[in-house]
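Bench log. Compound arrived from synthesis this morning; before running ITC I wanted a structural hypothesis for how DWN sits in the protein. Inputs:
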Amino acid sequence: MKCRFSAKEIPTILDFGKMPLGNGFLDSQVDDEYFFNMSVAVNHDIGLIQLEEQPDPSKMFHQEYAFFTRTSNFMVEHFKNVSDEIFSLLNESYSSDNSKYVVEIGSNDGVMLESLVKKNIKCLGVEPSKNVSAVSKKYGVETYEKFFSYDVSKEIISKHQQANIIYAANVFCHIPDINDLAKACANLLKDKGMLIFEDPYLGDVLNKISYDQIYDEHVYLFSCHSIKNIFAKYGLNLIDCKNLTTHGGSMRYYLVKDSQFTESNHLINTFKNEISNGLLDLNSYKEFARKCDFARKKFKERLELYKSNKLKIVGYGATSKSTAILNYCDVGCELIDFIVDTTPIKQGKLTPGKHIPVKDYANFIPHPDVSALFAWNHKKEILQKENNFKGKWITHLYNDLLD
Ligand code: DWN
């Protein structure tokens, strides 16, 4: 395929086969469920994994979008901390600006902006999934129900104003036209503004073999090298980055328009680590693909072994990532009885592709023998909550399948 950023021909590294939509939960069995061929290519010059084919965004983000940020107390806390950081930044760096303005792209249920609104900061959320943005509005967050683009950035400026801070969490990796996105951010940002965003980090995915971060919604997995290259083309310079534990390992990026920028020591070290860890080397991606295949076979074998020993297996967290795992590993109801999840819109439905029932979290009791932790990125929070569970937790991750 041609790289979406550079238009250069880039190699395929992994083919997942036919995949449904990560959040395409079904009310009942249907004959015409949507599937697409999911394969992944890499631009290893800049460390950028991308889907070769992505379903149309309107198929994925609509009035019945299944993911709400507020389902995790830890994530609510995480976004409270982000809003505190933005609030301090506004007071320190823009104290003389009387029209401070914050825009969040992909503001989901408004959990981050809500805290800023409460502090009387003028904010705007941009969120195309209408059921999710409805929650955001309930919390007092003005929300633009559109897909963010260069044209939308112009609309926001004409109806509102440019932003001091643009923030996005787990959103930029979803937007296929990365050139338009970077141009839109540069347009919307004030000259002295700052773009801050975070996404699952390619370095963590390669390290943990967390292939489940690759699904229809995630068109990219970024590295610092890729972010530096993409955004510099539009006059946005990467000055700092921060490793995060969220979503199994993420990176937060800080970018400014100022051409007199300096790169933080942490960013310089991260660039060095990306090189020494092989993020710019095609062989690392071949190794990643080999390990994914190993983990795929091992995970199913392990579940089959438990099942043959008459153990009761359920899943924990009907995540988008679990759609990738179950379909890639070819695991269905013959191995997993049901998956519990706290999100009301997912309960009573069937998982995409494999049609495993999703049940209310109350069904985790009586406890099963084995629980496949599909929400493995929320492990700390879930293990705290489930400290009475005496069965075995398992994951699909390579290192957990080695023994
Ligand atoms: O990037 C994305 C991230 C931010 O959110 C989107 N593409 C879609 C979504 O991905 P995901 O579904 O893989 O996200 P999570 O956060 O891993 O989903 C956790 C799921 O587990 C939710 O459905 C809620 C559920 N859950 C639960 O049942 N009990 C979560 C917790 C913490 C719990 O205690």
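What the model suggests: The CA atoms of residues 370 and 392 lie 5 Å apart. The chain has a mean pLDDT of 96.
ITC booked for Thursday regardless.
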